[in-house]
Design brief:
Pfam family, one (chains A, B, C, D): TetR_N
Strand content of chain A: under 5%
InterPro entries (chains A, B, C, D): Homeodomain-like_sf (IPR009057), HTH-type_TetR-like_transc_reg (IPR050109), HTH_TetR (IPR001647), Tet_transcr_reg_TetR-rel_C_sf (IPR036271), TetR_C (IPR011075)
Radius of gyration of chain A: 20 Å
Oligomer: homotetramer
Largest sheet of chain A: none
Helix content of chain A: 55-70%
Keywords (chains A, B, C, D): DNA-binding, Transcription, Transcription regulation
Distance between the termini of chain A: 68 Å
CATH topology of the largest domain in chain A: Tetracycline Repressor, domain 2
CATH class of the largest domain in chain A: Mainly Alpha
Protein name (chains A, B, C, D): TetR family transcriptional regulator
CATH architecture of the largest domain in chain A: Orthogonal Bundle
CATH superfamily of the largest domain in chain A: Tetracycline Repressor, domain 2
GO molecular function, one term (chains A, B, C, D): transcription cis-regulatory region binding
Largest interface: A-B, 47 and 46 residues
Structural class of chain A: mainly alpha
Chain lengths: ~200, ~200, ~200, ~200
DNA sequence: CATTAAGCGAGACGGTACGTCTTGTCTTTAC
DNA sequence: GTAAAGACAAGACGTACCGTCTCGCTTAATG
């Protein structure tokens, strides 16, 4: 009687799932996260509200799935030309372009904001989007260390956060402009910080 | 005809203002930001809803005023014992304690999150809370540079962000634990980054 | 795009409908029409406000439906013992009792008042409550005419209004006491007015 | 200490009083009684709200005063040409015109409606507007009786109500059109009802 | 002739209700 | 048995007025 309601995912409608993702991403871009509603997503997707409630616990969870379904992943890792600073500069410049793209902004900001107030969501958000980011930077730094360009005892994880943290903060809180100049400076300082003495 | 209705602030009730701040901070701690409502604040404060709508445009704006009314400011600046690393370690350790204090968390997280989706609010938030923070670090670094401990050409603003950005990100997104060890490591790396060669 | 939102009445909750009627009639008796609120009705009925707004345009419309759902109708017509004056006296005396009953007063007064200022409502009110009343009197007068007790050329509709108009006015505006004596006098005069010369 | 707040009427501003009346009558015509508000009257009249609350207990009371300040009174009584039926027909035809005048309708309807639900107000309304009306008709009927045209034992008050009640009901509840034909028929029937046998 | 006390315009206040919107649950019907 | 549709109870939204209050400002009438 007190069945915990676990829906049978084998019978799930892929068509509805896609439509919900598309609708969610469209709407968050059009009206913003605060005015994004489950009703609105259902209506735009041509889907019953229950279909959303059946599979996701909140609009943030829908958006996170929608976003990660689209987002490219980090499987490749960072380029390694042998020149650490140049590689970091290159990748961060690409990130500057990406994060300045309006399409990308709305859902990402929304998720970051929602995560700030919801530990469960942020655990997911971090595991799926931020950790992989930190990891590829840490990996690239480790490769540099293995090549003798970085001090043995440097904390590479923290170094990676020193690249991404200021970047994220400028973007998320708008504490400053997100430019190539900024990321280049950042790379210089971090490379200097971890450089073999 | 389209008068913007600007209320007369000289007739404003200080008692109501305080009661609203207290209620907002209490409630955000009790129920969280998402379930914080203007109605709830008004009821707790023993105030009409209109009194809130008259003076603030949103619950985020109320919270920002409430928070900054309470929050200590940065007038004093950072300590300067002559030992840059020690001073930074000391201050960041204090911040670790502050940001791990539950009282402080709810409103600050809420404001950061709300700011992420609302440029107008984040402008206020940054100007009143984050900029002053960045500034005192920049000032302390400048003093160190004047004392010859820091490279002439180092970008001190970005260096300050390298301290605060990773800190903020760990705390806000919970990408890692906010410990003394972390901030000490951060200080080491940053000091090394800007050190006179 | 400008769909008028017509709800599907086949899915309507009969339970809610009844609860709303009961609550409306109770409350109008307890607090009066001016202090009768949709919120109050919804709360008393254990119903969402939207459920009321979905089906009725105003509290007056709710009350009219509630009232007519309860009110007995006039299917039977007036008694016809052959003695016109006696029959009219009898029925009007019954009406005196009915209109002096506190239970009856509140909703009826409220509807009459609301109708005075709202042509659409009064059209409904008249069609459902007043016209049938006038009709049964007109019918009884016609029967009397057919029996040769009433002048051929008498305007029976106006005669019926001469019974009900003064009655209504005394009751609604409180221009005088609503007693058997009054209605008996009324009947005498009207019977005399239409009597065959 | 518990002074019941009796304002000093000698210091009252006649200018404000007039402005309030004008505003109330204008507004009731423009927006209807339900949307007539004290705030609106005050704003239109260029008057503080307190000035209204100081002198009247409700918007209905304001309107009643405003209306009676304008309305002509019945001092003159009805014409007496010796022909009762002709005199009544004449006066009622004039009333038909008056009650079909839009200017007149809004406030009068509003007051009648408000009175229906407020015994205190209706006492005032009846005493100041309806009783005098009934009285002049009763007086005219008495004159006719003194001239031998009306039965000695006829209840003249009820006869007067038989003229005004149906008239009021048609107008207030819109149970039928308010025409000369209707009032002429009414007069015929009433005159016949009270005629000396 | 200054003083003082009232009425006044103005509008902030604590409240209540409005009518709308969205939430998350539930039920019905179609596939 | 999932899905589209949508009614439902609940409750917050932001607005409009309520009736009370306090603020300066006329404006008498009094001491």
């Amino acid at each position: 009687m007190a069945t915990p309601r676990t829906p049978d995912s084998t019978r799930r409608s892929e068509r509805s799932r896609r439509a919900i993702f598309d609708a969610a991403l469209e709407l968050v871009g059009e009206v913003g996260y605060d005015k994004l509603t489950i009703e609105g997503i259902a209506a735009r997707a041509g889907v019953g509200k229950q279909t959303i409630y059946r599979w996701w616990p909140s609009k943030a969870a829908v958006l996170l799935d929608a976003f990660t379904a689209d987002a490219g992943d980090y499987e490749a890792g960072l380029p390694d030309t042998g020149d650490l600073a140049a590689d970091l500069r290159f990748v961060l410049r690409a990130s500057v372009d990406e994060f300045n793209d309006p399409k990308f902004q709305a859902p990402y900001r929304a998720l970051a904001a929602a995560g700030a107030n919801d530990a469960e969501l942020s655990a997911d958000f971090v595991a799926r989007l931020m950790e992989p980011g930190i990891k590829v930077y840490t990996d690239r730094l480790r490769a540099a260390r293995d090549q003798g360009q970085v001090a043995e005892d440097a904390d590479l994880r923290v170094a990676a956060e020193m690249l991404l943290g200021p970047f994220s903060q400028r973007w998320l809180m708008r504490t400053g402009p997100l430019t190539y100049e900024f990321t280049d400076t950042l790379v210089d300082l971090v490379v200097r910080a971890v450089a073999r003495r």
